[in-house]
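Kindly inspect both lines:
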Amino acid sequence: MLRCCLALFPLILAGAEIVSFPSGELTLHGVLYKPAGSGPFPAVLFNHGSGKDYTKEFEALGPVYNKHGWIFFAPYRRGQGLSASAGPYIVDEMNAALAAGGRGVRSKVMVERLETTQLSDQLAALAWLKKNAYVQPYRVAVAGNSFGGIQAVLGAEHGSYCAAIDSAGAAQNWTTSPEVRELMIRSVSNTKMPIFFFQAENDWDLGPSRDLAQAAKAARKPYQIKIYPPFGTSKEEGHSFGYYGSSTWAEDVFQFLNWHCPR
């Protein structure tokens, strides 16, 4: 099955290792970029968004993390990318819910999947990552963009990470899904670790970063928030800032990670 998937994603082999890990009875796959040397190294588990393939995005991010001495591990959750055959695609499930019952049903299905099967896949990937001898298990952070930003916030509540980076989590669903707002605010209020919220000014909606930072402040949780200048010329390009804008955010992100995930 993996041989089939690799044929569909040939570019992902450039500078990366394809790995497999269990999630319950499923076998999922991910992309691993390691710095030069034998390690052990700190690592970030990066959660992708709701698209089908993130080859280009991972090729942009992997070397950035490696340059700063961090492993970059991007697991594909069931139904997407290298794990496409492992289960239904979450967007297909959301679209079916929309057709059957409207936006309210779509929102409920989205949140149910995000906090069950999708979160389970993330935590399974974390367990696998920490077992590797080249990883410093006490210096593993979580990050993600868009749907992956939601997963990063959920991981901050439920996973054993040292810090979390949420770029643009729920920026396309913040005003249309009260369920996702409630889920993320609850997770931020319950988190055990610091979270850095950031977005480009021309993202779809800046409400997530601002509201979640306020929730962290109210709960007396450590956090940082930064809204950067516009990235690109459209909201869609602004939403991809977490993938392609590292020349702008890298100094802040790695300062945050190295401070909260000390040696």
